[in-house]
Amino acid sequence: MKVDAFDFELPPERIALRPASPRDAARMLVADSDGLHDRIVRDLPKMLRPGDCLVFNDTRVIPAQLQGKRGDATIGATLHKREGPRTWRAFIRNAKRLRDGDAIDFGAGVTATASDRAEDGSFALDFAGDEPVELLLERAGQMPLPPYIASKRATDERDAEDYQTMFAREAGAVAAPTAALHFTPELMAALDDAGIAHETLTLHVGAGTFLPVKADDTDDHRMHAEWGRIDAATADRLNTVRAKGGRVIAVGTTSLRLIESAAGDDNVIRPFEGDTAIFITPGYRFKGIDGLMTNFHLPRSTLFMLVSALMGLERMHEVYAHAIANDYRFYSYGDASLLLP
Fold first, then answer.
1. Position 29 in a domain
2. Do 340 and 37 meet the contact criterion of CB atoms below 8 Å apart?
3. Per-run averaged pLDDT (10 residues), the chain, 341 residues
4. In 78-162, where does DSSP find H-type helix?
5. Do residues 331 and 148 make contact, with C-beta atoms less than 8 angstroms apart?
6. Can you supply a Gene Ontology BP term from the record (predicted)?
7. What is residue 232's predicted lDDT score, i.e. its pLDDT?
8. Any domain includes 153
């Protein structure tokens, strides 16, 4: 499909720079067979049915944004995928000043050597020393806010908490699974009381999620791979939910992409561990999920393509037009949508 089909105009003031407080007070636009409904996230227990199951991503965001020096050149690095115990693939700012074998000093006793430059301009960074890389990043790194927020304000101490979900446990993401930012212990208790189950899986979100689609046709776009895991017990429980007539509702596109990577053509979800570069566009047949809760995405993005595959392109243009006209807040810190095809 032509990428232009996924374009829309978004007023800049619709981009949220801070999350709602409390988190579950964010607005939620529900799109189902009855139309569009303006709600808040706290209404979620009433929007679902007993026996349904929400699936969360328990990845934890690491301070993956680094700035350092190679000689007199300032080098910026955004880690996006672990390639080894001490090696991360990174997108580089000022990459023209960096060559294979160059050492970068990120301060606070943190240095890394660049190697293996890829076609997309990224480098492998090999971190020096014996300390776990996670400890080095805690000293020298910053939370990697999305570019559409970072271009408008500086990262601060609030982001260390705001940009982490209540489910965050497995360190390794460089972007938050933002749909889950709306959840609070109080909301989870209300969902439990309503008979709505929940499960967790792990997909370490990479910075590639923010890369623009530069191709003119979706067939020519290459997704960056991300590592994920669904264990056997979780897969079995999700299959049981559907066998009993419940719906599997992915919370976030990351959860959805991993479930769909693990599901076969027989609609059975199987254990999964490894990389996935699944790219979902209109025409895709969903095999493992029955609905999606997600934030509002960028025009021409792979994520808007994904929701258009789930609901239909014309329908999603209607959903987004409603959201823009009714002052919904967009992107990572913005409001939510509940999409029930």
1. yes
2. no
3. 96 96 98 97 98 98 96 95 94 94 97 94 96 95 90 91 97 94 98 98 85 89 92 98 98 98 98 96 98 97 97 98 98 97 96
4. 133-140, 147-150, 157-162
5. yes
6. tRNA queuosine(34) biosynthetic process
7. 98
8. no
In this prediction the pTM is 0.93
Return the axis-axis angle of helices 302-311 and 253-262, rounded to nearest 10°: 70
Q: Which residues contact 100 (CB under 8 A, 6 or more apart)?
A: 114, 115, 116, 117, 123
Token look-up 């006209």 returns 325
Q: How deeply is 35 buried, as exposed, middle or buried, from its count of CB atoms within 10 A (0-12, 13-18, 19+)?
A: exposed
User: Where are any strands of DSSP class E within 121-225?
Assistant: 123-127, 170-173, 197-203
What pairs with residue 275 in β-bridges?
227
* Residue labelled with tokens 């212990």: 185
Q: Output the CA–CA distances (angstroms, integers) from residue 145 to 57, 83, 238, in the order listed.
A: 18, 22, 32
In a shared domain, residues 274 and 195: yes
State the virtual CA torsion across 143, 149, 153, 157 in degrees, nearest 10: -30
Answer yes or no: is 245 within a domain: yes
The domain total for the chain is: 2
Domain containing 114: what range? 65-141
Q: Please check whether residue 46 is in contact with residue 190, taking contact to mean a CB–CB distance below 8 angstroms.
A: no
CATH code of the domain containing 246: 3.40.1780.10
CA distances from 115 to 90, 92, 233, 328 (A): 10, 12, 39, 43
* DSSP 8-state symbol, 55: E
